[in-house]
Design a protein that fits this description.
The chain is an alpha/beta fold. The protein is built from 13 helices and 15 strands. The two termini are 33 Å apart. The structure holds pyridoxal-5'-phosphate. The site of pyridoxal-5'-phosphate (PLP) has 13 residues, from helix 5 and helix 6. Pyridoxal-5'-phosphate binds next to helix 5 and helix 6.
């Protein structure tokens, strides 16, 4: 893998070291022209005929398959659309319907709040007495009892980067008669994922983080082949209907993964996703993982040496860590604002985490070293200790 070549494919603002591609990936240079084409040549010139002529209607499946390759899904079982929160709801509802006698959704306390909120809302809406049980991440394996309908987990913890063992936990869930919903928000494009090998039942993820498809880019959903033709979609929108343009009065689910579509796909955002995936088509995930581990190991070693006031809040063992590193500091928010002012962009995650994402496609060892030098300078000289850096913005 030539990571200098992939770096040249991104627009990275001058003077910025971008360690937040785990939250919002940077702009692939080709995306601007691809979006302009979708606007001018397609929307502008083709108008409504673009749905057929430019292939807009077929894009959610085509793009889904290109993401599927990155997460070990066979072609034909991944589709894009909506936002990740919506896809979590869809996957969870479908899984619960396949286990009608069971009432427990098991998750962990480190899961991303939106996933847990969606489960809470779904339980209330269903009104069938389901319960959401959250346990410590380390205890999940021992808590998968015969009452569990669905094990719903995010593979890589959004704060700490701690990784669950997808294959092992899925096997445990299946042995207990439960199904699995895996959230790949911090996995897709970050680590090798093998949904087929792990025998995952459902998986969801987003495309604006490591996949670099831009703010508001659609999510994806995977349904394993053995469930794809039997699941009953809870969000029964017209584009998941077997014959959307027959305009029938009642819902009939489409074939396989088609039924996980809901409504009109975001055409302009799909153009950005298409350009972003052109880069991913050439990426070897095992080479990317090796480089990612080199970068996170380097970062941790440099922080250990230069920043004694920070504590590592990520697993020290790289085999248990995704592509991000969290460091704790009592004034983490102010420290991050001071860092951003110096051109090192990471983010703050409550209550006291500085979070940094490492993305080999455009970040190398020189940037990691420089980022830690700036971080050490800010801490050594208390440059974070000014009022302006302590006032919280809406998005942290
Ligand atoms: C980023 C993220 C989300 C965000 O969901 P959206 O609907 O795209 O806003 C949800 N779940 C996890 C685990 C995430 O990391």
């Amino acid at each position: 893998m030539d990571f200098a070549a992939t770096k040249a494919l991104f627009h990275l603002p001058k003077g910025v070291i971008y360690l937040d591609g785990n939250s919002l990936g940077p702009l692939p240079k080709a995306a601007a022209a691809r979006i302009a084409r979708a606007v001018g040549d397609e929307w502008g010139e083709m108008l409504i005929t673009g749905w057929n002529m430019a292939g807009w209607m077929a894009q959610p499946r085509a793009l889904g398959d290109r993401i599927g390759r990155l997460v070990g899904a066979p072609p034909g079982y991944t589709v894009i659309g909506d936002t990740l929160s919506v896809k979590v709801y869809q996957a969870l509802a479908a899984a619960l319907a396949l286990r009608p006698g069971r009432k427990v959704i098991l998750s962990d306390t480190g899961n991303f709040p939106s996933d847990l909120y969606m489960a809470e809302g779904l339980i209330e809406g269903f009104g069938r007495g389901h319960v959401l049980k959250t346990v410590d991440p380390e205890e999940v394996a021992t808590q998968i009892g015969e009452d569990v309908a669905v094990l719903m987990l995010t593979e890589v913890d959004y704060r700490t980067g701690r990784m669950h063992d997808m294959a092992r936990l899925t096997a445990r869930a299946h042995a207990a008669g439960a199904l699995t919903v895996w959230d790949l928000a911090h996995s897709a494009g970050a680590i090798p994922v093998d949904l087929t090998g792990a025998k995952a039942d459902f998986a969801v993820g987003c495309t604006y983080k490591y996949l670099n498809a831009g703010p508001g880019a659609p999510a994806f959903i995977y349904v394993a082949p053995e469930h794809a033709d039997t699941v009953r979609p809870a969000l029964s929108g017209w584009l998941g209907h077997d014959a959307p343009f027959a305009f029938e009065p009642h819902y009939r689910p489409g074939t396989g993964i088609e039924r996980m579509r809901v409504g009109t796909p975001p055409v302009l955002q799909m153009a950005a996703l298409e350009a972003a995936l052109d880069i991913w088509d050439g990426v070897d995930m095992s080479a990317l993982r090796a480089r990612s581990i080199e970068l996170t190991e380097l970062f941790i070693a440099e922080v250990d040496a230069a920043c004694p006031s920070l504590t590592l809040n990520s697993p020290r063992d790289p085999a248990l860590r995704g592509s991000q590193v969290a460091l704790r500091h009592p004034e983490a928010y102010a420290v991050m604002q001071a860092l951003i002012a110096r051109g090192v962009i990471g983010d703050f995650r409550a209550p006291d985490n500085l979070r940094f994402g490492f993305t080999p496609l455009y970040i190398g060892a020189a940037e990691v070293r420089r980022a830690v030098r700036i971080l050490a300078d800010i801490l050594d000289n208390r440059l974070w200790d000014v009022t302006a850096y302590k006032t919280r913005a809406t998005v942290t």
